[in-house]
Amino acid sequence: MPANMRTGLFVGTFDPFTIGHDSVVRRVLPLFDRLIIGVVGDNVNKPAMRPAAERMAAIARLYEGDARVLVKPYYGLAVDFARAEGAQFIVKGVRSVKDFEYEREMADVNRQIAGIETLLLYAEPQLASISSSVVRELQHFGADVSPFIPTPQEP
Q1: For a tag on the chain, would you pick the N or C end, based on fewer CB atoms within 10 A?
Q2: Which helix (H) or strand (E) holds 109?
Q3: What is the pLDDT along the chain (155 residues), one digit of tens a residue?
Q4: Residue 8 burial by CB count (10 A; 0-12/13-18/19+): exposed, middle or buried?
């Protein structure tokens, strides 16, 4: 990897990966030479979470035509994963003031412990109420969630 390559890291459980997540990816791609989508591995204490391999495969299908996007599992701290991958920035989406406060605190800690900056990208207004939790709940009750799940697009 060239020393001047700009690498971003977008991390989450992505259970499921929503149109909100896809919006973040597509909006930050112009900022980076490479964007790693870090999928939280199976060691998380969320028993109902789909396996990491399944979540990663769904995301990889979305971006299979774009060599700038890599999908990888990670375990532990996001800053450790960022360092291991040579990422200079962690990317996070923010939907609300509640999200902003949480992510701001995490960004401050990540900068202090690892010197890694965090880019907060505000959700597009029409996507601000979409979350993986909401989509999972809708799925649980048998609702059609296809409007909230991205599909592969032509490059």
Answers
A1: C
A2: helix 97-114
A3: 666 899 999 999 999 999 999 999 999 999 999 999 999 987 666 667 899 999 999 999 999 999 999 999 999 999 999 999 999 999 999 999 999 999 999 999 999 999 999 999 999 999 999 999 999 999 999 999 999 999 987 65
A4: buried
Question: In b/e form, how buried is each residue of 35-46, taking b as 16+ CB within 10 angstroms?
Answer: bbbbbbbeeeee
- Terminal-residue alpha carbon distance, the chain: 24
Give me the torsion for CA of 23, 29, 35, 37, rounded to 10°.
10
- Say what the alpha-carbon torsion angle 24, 47, 50, 128 is, to the nearest 10 degrees: -30
Number of Cβ within a 10 Å radius of residue 103? 17
Specify whether the CB–CB gap between 31 and 69 falls below 8 A.
Answer: no
Collapsed DSSP state (helix, strand, coil) of residue 94: strand
Radius of gyration of the chain (CA): 15
Cα 60 from Cα 71, distance rounded (Å) = 6
Residue type, 136: R
Q: Taking Cα atoms as reference points, which of 20, 4, 35 lies closest to residue 119? A: 35
